Amino acid sequence: MPDTRFLPVPDALVGDRVDAALSRLLGFSRTRCAELAAEGNVLVNGVPAGKSDRLSATDIIEVTIPDPPSAPTPVTGMDILYDDDDIVVVDKPVGVAAHTGPGWAGPTVLGNLEAAGYRITTHGPPERQGIVHRLDVGTSGAMMVAKSDRAYSVMKRAFKERTVRKIYHTVVAGHPDPDSGTIDAPIGRHPSRDWRMAVIEGGKHAITHYDTLELMPGAALLEIHLETGRTHQIRVHMSAIKHPCVGDTFYGADPVQAAALGLERQWLHAVELGFNHPITGMPTLVRSPYPADLQAALDLLRG
Predict the structure, then answer these.
(1) What span, in angstroms and rounded, lies between the C-alpha atoms of 159 and 105?
(2) What is the DSSP string of 274-299?
(3) Is 70 exceeded by the pLDDT of residue 112?
(4) Helix or strand run (H / E) with residue 257
């Protein structure tokens, strides 16, 4: 049943907004406290309070916390790696786009979350509200979506300022030499094929760091740290140094090898997101395991 609490205003919170004060008193996100006020569940001295009302030393807050809703419907075909009031990190499968767009009528991360009952912030362009970064349709792994307005603003800035640790694993053809290095090469639209990206003069600044994790016959498992986030950056950079991602026939991988490994897409997976939580500031690390198709191909390469 609903939980009703009567809260005096501590000296430290005198003059604060209702939503900010409740967030500190209850330990809820500020967004959730604003929702409680909007739903009429917050009274100050017996009168319904707005989220931005200021509190005085003699005020008594009466807050009613409704019963928690039933858990969201499981997201079909898409695991949840991390979830709280402010952000959700999904394990995006291959074949799922981040959001709708021209020419795409397939499943999307946003569509799946909304169908499962997740509340996503309305911040951002209409077709990609809550999206703070994206993965290609053909790339799987950890992808974050903002649930609260504050989280959207903070994480959007964090990704732009490159303070989020984004780690990918990829299997490439051959053995890169040196086995660790940095690729600093500008990326733009291919001059004659505008549906393809390429390393070109005058393209956008792009930096990819790589380390070899494992050598296999004719292939290598690499860990990739992106310093920038250009379209198809890892795929383009690895192709440019003559070590395309295995299975990535779009950017020069051997189609015979791809077929032998059962791959219908590039061997590329977003394995890790490391960031400071947008509300608490606490260091947070989320990891995604290899999906079945990539693990099976890796096992075949290992023999």
Answers:
(1) 27
(2) EEE-TTT--EEEEE-PPPHHHHHHHH
(3) yes
(4) helix 255-260
Other C-beta atoms closer than 10 Å to the C-beta of 109 total 26
d(CA 107, CA 137): 10
Cα 99 to Cα 15: distance, rounded to the nearest angstrom: 41
Q: Do 276 and 161 touch, CB atoms closer than 8 A?
A: no
Pairing between β-strand 268-276 and β-strand 165-173 as defined by DSSP bridges: antiparallel
* DSSP secondary structure letters along 29-98: -HHHHHHHHHTT-EEETTEE--TTPBP-TT-EEEEEEPPPPPPPPP-TT-EEEEE-SSEEEEEEPTT-BS
Active site residue 19: no
Residue type, 274: G
Q: What is the per-residue pLDDT across 224-237, written as a single tens digit (0 to 9) for each?
A: 999 888 989 999 99
Whether residue 75 has pLDDT greater than 70: no
- Spot the catalytic one: 59, 86, 136, 248: 136
- Decide if 86 contacts 121 (C-beta within 8 A): no
- Placement of tokens 């709280």 in the chain: 84
Global pTM value:
0.74
Per-residue pLDDT tens for 251-271? 999 999 999 999 999 999 999
DSSP-derived pairing of the beta strands 60-65 and 47-48: unpaired
Question: Cis peptide before 283, with omega less than 30 degrees from 0?
Answer: no
Q: How far apart are CA 210 and CA 166, in angstroms?
A: 12
Helices (H), 101-254: 109-115, 149-160, 233-240
Virtual torsion, Cα 156, 146, 282, 54, nearest 10 deg: 100
Task: Please report, for residues 53, 85, 154, 220, 256, the alpha-carbon distance to residue 98 in angstroms, rounded to integers and kept in the order given.
Answer: 37, 20, 19, 28, 30
Residue 169 near residue 213 (C-beta atoms within 8 A): yes
